[in-house]
Design goal:
- The chain has 732 residues and is mostly beta strands.
- It is built from four helices and 44 strands.
- The chain has six domains: 93 residues, Immunoglobulin-like (Sandwich), CATH 2.60.40.60; 84 residues, Immunoglobulin-like (Sandwich); 98 residues, Cadherins (Immunoglobulin-like, Sandwich), CATH 2.60.40; 108 residues, Immunoglobulin-like (Sandwich); 89 residues, Cadherins (Immunoglobulin-like, Sandwich), CATH 2.60.40; 77 residues, Sandwich (Immunoglobulin-like).
- 8% of the residues lie in helices and 37% in strands.
- Strands 37, 39, 42, 43 and 44 form a five-stranded mixed β-sheet that branches.
- Strand 33 and strand 34 form a beta hairpin.
- The chain is elongated, with a radius of gyration of 58 Å.
Length: 732
């Protein structure tokens, strides 16, 4: 049996060790340590994200440490790889940092001071320390009680076990072990054990500690210490063998028992060594999620479901730690494995991936059997039998125009047409398709995603447009200027249908066509053409309301020899009036009035504004016909004054420039021009009118002053006359 005081000592010592590390770590190591290497010195508290970086160890100069120190990247321990000599170097100043590959510092630097021959107070793990102070009475050693050490003690070695002291100066200590054992003493009298002890190898050691001076002379007889190796818990708990996976249905309530573990320990029954408790190692609870998926009773080993729900298809390997000594420090443990398989139930209703499809346009002459749309539904259940689906048309198909087609084990269903469509009977259809699970559903019923609506629009079938000719031909002189009208393309029924025209293969870019009117003009001068050549393009006409309906006809252009240029005299253009701000008015510009070629139909005039940029900005010129053009304002506001607009008129090979005089003025509400009126004869100017008014006012003021002065003088004269000189009234 193990003494009770040793159990208390083993349990209490680790709790007394300091947990906090100072800002600068200090580690002490005995000089010329004779144990095994590498020797673990201290563990650094690296952050959790340490796995993302690399631990770097450097000296006091910032360079990589070249010496007997290294870092264990897995555990974060600082370790020494060989024995140190204080005479070579008494202290080592190190720095530890955590850096990324691009040398960015994630943590640190953490300074670490390593002193040689100082006490190692950074031991960690399960420790049992017995400190014995020996006082000197009349230069003799005091007898000590035996030191008890546990067998196979799991601590950081060398491990401090006792301390002796000899009063005086210049004291050195020397240790002898009988039989030879793993013990050592430093200059301060600290006793160490350098490795684990085994009772089968040796159950008791006798240590002799000598106190010497610097010359190696003993002060007195040695101090004799007895070290007793105590028999410890040697048997590891044995877990039951791992069996087949335990099946747990999905949505099982919390508290459902999964399995019950029963580990065995070969130590004495009823003793602390055979008292086994259980602890669940995994799965750990997720961050931000309350509760765990599994729980274990520490006494009985019963594994039950927790509050966190499980998902079907999960295969979970539970790790349960079985510990003897009732889980106390220094005991043995084994990891038991339990495999759990979460089986599926039919708790998910099938749903369509898209709830709205379309609108899908179908012509009314489409043949029955045509695939209208393909719908896809999914089921979150894992069991194949729970994923079988049944489809049906719920509403929107009263007359059976549509039907469904699908495979039993497929989630795809096709909506097909069964009857002919009619635009007059139904221009649109909204077909609602529902999906259900074949197996009985457990839990809530189908949600809104169990239906999908397919919108079908029926298109009226119309014949393609038809033009008034199946082939068009036109002749044009090679000297025709840009903008010359060649011909007009017209539909056969211009009243019922409106068309938009375009040219398809005008490779030379000689022609252009008005989209609405169908007028074909020359887009540029016909350079490079020869009389007698032909040029063929296609004229495409599209229905304005139905762009997919179109037709095309060929247009053949015959190039003619340029006629001789007539001698023409431009007609005079009288002045015209236009209003600003702009109104719906313009000026008609006509070509030369006498032109025998135009009268005989040899070609029209073309009109264009002069090359002046200001004129082209302020004015707009539109061709009305082969002999007239329409001149209007291009801007909303043009300065009111008389403008002279140059207009270039061309006919065949001749060109003229007409100067059109236009007076721009402000207009009244009736559209009449309001012109500025000059001063009439005999009318006074503004200055003279002001002078007359001022003179009249001055004269009136002088006249009033004279009247007031005369009245004042007369009043004073009456007041100064004597009283006796006042005439008396006659008495009657």
């Amino acid at each position: 049996m193990v003494p009770a005081w040793l159990w208390l000592l083993c349990i209490s010592v680790p709790q007394a060790l300091p947990e906090a590390q100072p800002a600068e770590l200090s580690v002490e190591i005995p000089e010329n340590y004779g144990g095994n290497f590498p020797l673990y010195l201290t563990k650094l508290l690296l952050p959790r994200e340490g796995a993302e970086g690399q631990i770097m160890l450097s000296g006091d100069s910032g360079k990589a440490a070249q010496g007997p120190f290294a870092m264990d990247p897995d555990s974060g321990f600082l370790l020494v790889t060989r024995a140190l000599d204080r005479e070579e170097q008494a202290e080592y100043q190190l720095q530890v940092t955590l850096e990324t590959q691009d040398r960015r510092v994630l943590w640190g630097p953490q300074p670490v001071l390593v002193r040689v021959k100082d006490e190692n107070d950074q031991a960690s793990g399960h420790q049992a320390i017995a400190t014995v102070e020996v006082s000197i009475i009349e230069s003799t050693w005091v007898p000590l009680e035996p030191i008890h050490l546990a067998e196979n003690l799991k601590v950081l070695y060398p491990h401090h076990i006792a301390q002796v002291h000899w009063s005086g100066v210049d004291v050195h200590y020397r240790l002898e072990s009988h039989p030879l054992g793993p013990f050592d003493v430093d200059a301060e009298g600290n006793l160490y054990v350098t490795r684990e002890l085994d009772t089968e190898a040796q159950a008791e050691y006798v240590l002799q500690v000598w106190a010497q001076n610097s010359r190696g002379e003993d002060y007195a007889a040695p101090l004799e210490l007895h070290v007793l190796v105590m028999d410890e818990n040697d048997n590891v708990p044995v877990c039951p063998p791992r069996g087949p996976a335990v099946s747990i249905p999905e949505l099982s309530p919390p508290g459902t028992e999964v399995t019950r573990l029963s580990a065995e320990d070969a130590d004495a029954p009823g003793s602390p060594n055979s008292h086994i408790v259980y602890q669940l190692l995994n799965p750990e609870s997720e961050d931000g999620v309350e509760g765990r998926a599994f729980q274990v009773d520490s006494t009985s080993g019963s594994v039950t479901l927790g509050a966190l729900p499980l998902q079907a298809g999960q295969n979970i390997l539970l790790l349960v730690l079985a510990m003897d000594l009732a889980g106390a420090e220094g005991g043995f443990s084994s990891t038991c494995e339990v495999e759990v398989e979460v089986t599926d139930i039919n708790d998910h209703a099938p749903e369509f991936t898209t709830s709205q499809i379309g609108p899908i346009s179908l012509p009314e002459d489409v043949e029955p059997g045509t695939l209208v749309a393909m719908l896809t539904a999914t089921d979150a259940d894992l069991e194949p039998a729970f994923r079988l689906m049944d489809f049906a048309i719920e509403r929107g198909d009263m007359d059976g125009t549509f039907d469904l087609d699908w495979e039993p084990d497929s989630g795809h269903v096709g909506l097909r047409l069964c009857k002919n469509l009619s635009y007059e009977a139904a221009p649109s259809h909204k077909v609602v398709v529902v999906v259900r699970s074949v197996a009985e559903l457990v839990g809530p019923g189908p949600g809104p995603g169990a239906t999908a609506t397919v919108t079908v629009l029926v298109e009226r079938v119309m014949p393609p447009p038809k033009l008034d000719q199946e082939r068009y031909e036109a002749s044009v002189p090679i000297s025709a200027p840009a903008g010359s009208l060649l011909l007009t393309i017209q539909p056969s029924d211009p009243i019922s249908r409106s068309l938009r025209f375009s040219l398809v293969n005008d490779s030379e870019g000689w022609l252009c066509i008005e989209k609405v009117s169908g007028e074909v003009h020359t887009a540029q001068s016909l350079q490079g053409t020869q009389p007698g050549d032909t040029y063929t393009v296609l004229v495409e006409a599209q229905d304005t309301d139905e762009p997919r309906l179109s037709t095309s006809v060929p247009l053949v252009i015959h190039f003619l020899k340029a006629p001789p240029a007539p001698a023409l005299t431009p007609a005079p253009v009288p002045s015209r009036y236009l209003c600003t701000p702009r109104q719906d008015h313009g000026v008609i510009v006509s070509g030369p009035s006498k032109d025998s070629d135009l009268a005989s139909g040899h070609g029209p005039y073309s009109f264009a504004l002069g090359p002046n940029p200001t004129v082209q900005r302020d004015w707009r010129l539109q061709t009305l016909n082969g002999s007239h053009a329409y001149l209007t304002l291009a801007l909303h506001w043009v300065e009111p004054r008389e403008h002279i607009i140059p207009v270039v008129v061309s006919h065949n090979a001749q060109m003229w420039q007409l100067l059109v005089r236009v007076i721009v003025c402000r207009c009244n509400v009736e559209g009449q021009c309001m012109r500025k009126v000059g001063r009439m004869k005999g009318m006074p100017t503004k200055l003279s009118a002001v002078g007359i008014l001022v003179g009249t006012l001055v004269a009136i003021g002088i006249f009033l002053i004279l009247i007031f002065t005369h009245w004042t003088l007369s009043r004073k004269k009456d007041l100064n006359q004597p009283a006796d000189s006042v005439p008396l009234k006659a008495t009657v």
